[in-house]
Amino acid sequence: MKKITLVTIVILCMSMCSHKSMVVQQIEEVEMIRVVVQPTVEINKEIIFEIFFNGMPEKGSFQMGNIDGLEVSRHNVFGMSGFSVTKKEDGYSFDTSAKTTKLGKIEIPSVSAIINGVEYKSKPFSINVVDSIAVNSNSVRTVLVPNKNTYSLQDTIIVSLLKYSKFSNAREKNIPDYFDFTLYHQTEIENIDEYPNEDLEWIDFKWGLIDELPRKMGQLDGEDYIISEVYRFYYLANKKGKYTCHPSVLEFSIHKSTTDFIEQASLNAKESDEKIDHSYKLTVTSNPIEIIVE
User: Fold this and answer.
1) Structure pTM?
2) Cα-Cα-Cα-Cα dihedral of 54, 56, 60, 64, to 10°?
3) Which fold has domain 33-130?
4) Residue 67: helix, strand or coil by DSSP?
5) 162 pairs with which residues across the strands?
């Protein structure tokens, strides 16, 4: 019989513990509930909280407690009687709104819901309430990202344009028209028509607003943003090589709060030939990227 040394036991234990830690970490990375909300808000303005669920929540189970500094206006209606969710690519969601009532940092411990008989809670989060917010070049940023560093000929190449926004109401002005469904009309990417060619074939396309692509909170250069996918390309390469994806140039229409957006919509709902637009305009250019097929 072979001797099992102390060193062998230690190595086995370290390996098992490391594997267990990795499994636990993978489980914790799956958020059953996450909240997307504008990180900085003006005082006495209404904002939207987007609640995302990794499974269908039970009716009446959503809970968002009383929070000092927020006047929650709709979650009781959804939580008790009219709980209505929307199917998303990565689960389900619904929106609730609140009005800010005091300046400073507002801590929100968590929201909760029951999914498949188990109560889950979101991570704690906070928002910052100020007198006024400036719209500048950092308010909305866009980043082109591939799903891999390098590809083989058998891979599906996925390229996404991520929008980093400090505002919930930052909308692309060139929303696709179902009757004019051209790639350039939707993306404003220079020379986009050169991409579906004999070397790099376009096979599918998803637009964030139509296909309900995921949204989440995150940071870019140390600043808090709402992250969403504006669009997502799917390609196949017919031969090896390097391919440049040109920058996207999009114009965004920004309202600093849900209150501002609703006020403008209410004014435009009245019969008038002249439409009112109080939004801020921002033209944003993304980075180019290089796609490598080996």
Assistant:
1) 0.78
2) 10
3) Immunoglobulin-like (2.60.40)
4) coil
5) 143, 229
Half-sphere exposure of 74 (CA within 13 A, CB side): 16
- Distances in whole angstroms, Cα of residue 76 to Cα of each of 53, 65, 110: 18, 10, 16
Please name the amino acid found at residue 238: N
Tell me the C-alpha to C-alpha distance, in Å, between residue 166 and each of 33, 91, 134, 138, 228: 21, 24, 11, 8, 11
Encoding tokens for residue 181? Answer: 């469904």
% helix / strand / coil in the chain, to the nearest 5?
20, 45, 35
Q: Decide if 245 contacts 232 (C-beta within 8 A).
A: no
List the CATH code of the domain at 140-293.
2.60.40
Which tokens go with 275?
């439409």
Domain residue ranges of the chain, discontinuous segments joined by +: 33-130, 140-293
- The runs of H, that is alpha helices, within the chain are 6-29, 75-80, 183-187, 208-211, 258-269
Tell me, yes or no, if the two domains 33-130 and 140-293 fold the same way. yes
Q: What is the DSSP letter of 63?
A: B
**pLDDT per residue over 91-145, tens digit each?**
888 888 888 999 999 998 888 989 999 999 999 989 999 999 999 999 999 999 9
- Residue 5: what are its φ and ψ, rounded to 5°? -80, 165
Q: Which residue has the tokens 């995302």?
A: 52
